[in-house]
Structures are given as C-alpha cells and as structure tokens.
Design brief:
72% helix; mainly alpha; 3 helices; 69 residues
C-alpha cells in the first residue's frame, strides 16, 4: 500500500519540513524561470521567461501592501 508523502516525511522525523519545502519550491522556480530567462539561446523563450519572472516579482512586491486608488 502507498503512504502519502507527508506521512512518510513525518515518520522520518524531518525537523525542518517547512524549510525543505521552501527550498524545493525556490529551486524549482529558479531552474524553471530564472535560468531560461538568462541563458536561453532562443529569444522567444528568454522573453517568455522574463515576463513570468516579472509577474512573480510583481506579485511578491505587492504582497502585504494596499493598492492606492
């Protein structure tokens, strides 16, 4: 029988589970968005990755702030 991943991690006593998950998320975003925006030879891929990166950074910048009308 299969055991869900979180239950498996809890039985392994991973003390810093939030830190591990945050590191995995950061690595995935970095490898999937930042690297293609910088090192891709295809201009279309660089442009698309740069737009996604701008959207992510914009979302982080407005987080917790009120927008003025």
């Amino acid at each position: 029988m299969s055991v869900p991943v979180l239950e498996t991690l809890q039985t392994l006593h991973v003390p810093d589970l939030p830190l591990v998950l945050a590191s995995v998320a950061f690595t995935a975003i970095y490898a999937g968005v930042v690297l293609p925006a910088v090192w891709s030879r295809k201009p279309a891929r660089r442009t698309a990755a740069a737009k996604v990166l701008a959207q992510l950074l914009g979302a982080l910048g407005t987080r917790g702030r009120r927008r003025r009308r």
